[in-house]
Amino acid sequence: MGCGTSTSAAASTESALDYGSDTSPCSSDAGGDTHGGRVTRTSSASASSDPMRLSGLSATSDARSLGTIEGRDPSIDLESSARKGFTGLRNLGNTCYMNSAIQCLSHTVPLVDYFLNCDWQAEINRENVLGHDGAMAMAYSRLLEKLWRGHRAVHNPKGFKSALCRVAPHFRGYEQHDAQELLVFLLDGLHEDLNRVSKKPYVEDAECDGRPEEVVAAESWKGYLLRNKSIVVDLFQGQLRSTLECCHCGYKRVKFDPFMYLSLPVPEGKARREPATLDDCLREFAKEEMLTGDEQWRCSKCKDFRDAKKKFDIWKVPPVLIVHLKRFKYLPTGERRKVRTFVDFPGGNWSLRNHVKSPQREKPIYDLFAVSNHHGGFGSGHYTAFCKGRNMSGGDKGEGGGGGAGGLRTASG
After folding, report:
1. How many CB atoms lie within 10 A of CB 391?
2. pTM above 0.85, yes or no
3. How many Cβ atoms sit within 10 Å of the Cβ of residue 325?
4. Given this model, what pLDDT does residue 274 score?
5. Cβ within 8 Å of residue 114, ≥6 positions away
6. Which runs of consecutive H residues, i.e. helices, occur in 255-409?
7. Which of 182, 184, 187, 185 is closest to 96 using CA atoms?
8. Which of 11, 14, 94, 237 is the most exposed, having the fewest neighbouring CB atoms within 10 Å of its CB?
């Protein structure tokens, strides 16, 4: 079933989340001051039996130490009557955008395990001026308790929405919003509330200037971790390589920047009934772009504005990859329309080997586990979500909805 019943969604697109099949453990290169205590399990189960273990930087009040966050199937220690994540969210007017995003995120197993089975409260950063004194983390934790440990088929998320609106007034009321906007705000809020860095040092951007890209990328990532270290960084953040090349003198500037999701253009021009693939979308994302006219780049070698070539490439991928399809585009008239090209999502074994430009110790392969769907056009429509349980097979069906392709089940509401 859908996550809501009322018309909703403004300038939204579809989003999908994938697990890296071989990305555990996730290394956490240390750096900078940390905040909070050691993250430990509240479960009595043995860590050695956990199918997913994520290493993270933790600290006591006296000294830093390396700890681990073991991510397991969160349903292992729950009562047999608990809903174990298969819980609908009631629509509060036009809040299906919120419900859809929450359903996808609530099926991200290592993040759920972190909130249900770890001492995450020890990592609340109350000194971070960009955080919310733990308000977002506590509100999300209470919501997960209802979705996973609760016994009701449908939950009213008014408590979570109230907490959200207190820190983000633009979500007040029952107007239409974008599920991607909500998802990104929630992840940003969780990151800042749980950032293990209490004192952020000044870090200069690292640039190549003729040095090996692997060295500069590592410097950039280490510098980023000096200011940002949380469960959100551990799970969701990767690294992009951006290249600018002056068309006049040939000078290149190469930089490496973190990302939390990939916002991919949907290719057009194919036959009406011919689908595109996620690989097609990634190729569109990585296409070289010309900067001319008002968009010229100021070349540091020429000391003047010049036409330039701009390009983005994936350098480092995270354990959990969020893909956002840019379904809306501006027309020359200033109007916006939805790009309705069908995009074929592989249910599993999606390899990014040909798209990731850094040397790979392990193959970057992902399995699809959640999709946020937008139905309708710009300014109107409806959101639903398809989510895959940790141990669901392709033939599994959930109460109130079919299993769908690849074992995805509909999120009721």
Report:
1. 10
2. no
3. 25
4. 81
5. 39, 69, 71, 120, 231
6. 278-285
7. 182
8. 11
Pairing of strands 276-277, 328-330: unpaired
Residue identified by tokens 């097979």 is: 393
pLDDT along the chain (413 residues), means of 10: 23 52 32 37 35 32 33 67 86 90 93 92 92 94 93 92 91 86 95 93 85 94 96 96 95 95 86 82 96 95 96 96 90 82 88 92 90 84 85 36 41 38
Return the SS3 of 126. coil
96 is annotated as an active-site residue: yes
Cα–Cα distance for residue pair 194/176, rounded to 1 Å? 29
R_g over Cα of the chain: 22
Task: Classify each residue of 70-107 as buried b or exposed e, where b means 16 or more C-beta atoms within 10 Å of its C-beta.
Answer: bbbbbbebbeeebbbbbbbbebbebbbbbbbbbbbbbb
pLDDT at 16: 61
Selected catalytic residue, list 155, 177, 382, 387 = 382
| Distance in angstroms (rounded) separating the CA atoms of residues 36 and 408 | 36
Catalytic-residue membership of 132: no
Residue with tokens 């392990």: 362
Report d(CA 398, CA 27) in Å as an integer. 35
Instruction: Give the DSSP letter string of 39-64.
Output: --B-S-S-GGG-SEEEEEEEE-SS-E
pLDDT of residue 388: 86
Nearest Cα to Cα of residue 370 among 79, 107, 145, 49: 107
Please name the amino acid found at residue 88. G
Q: Yes or no: say if 82 and 152 are a contact pair by the CB < 8 Å rule.
A: no
Two tokens at 373?
């769907």
Cα angle vertex 307, ends 302, 309, to 5°? 105
Q: What is the pLDDT of residue 36?
A: 34
| Catalytic-labelled residue, pool 3, 96, 104, 246 | 96
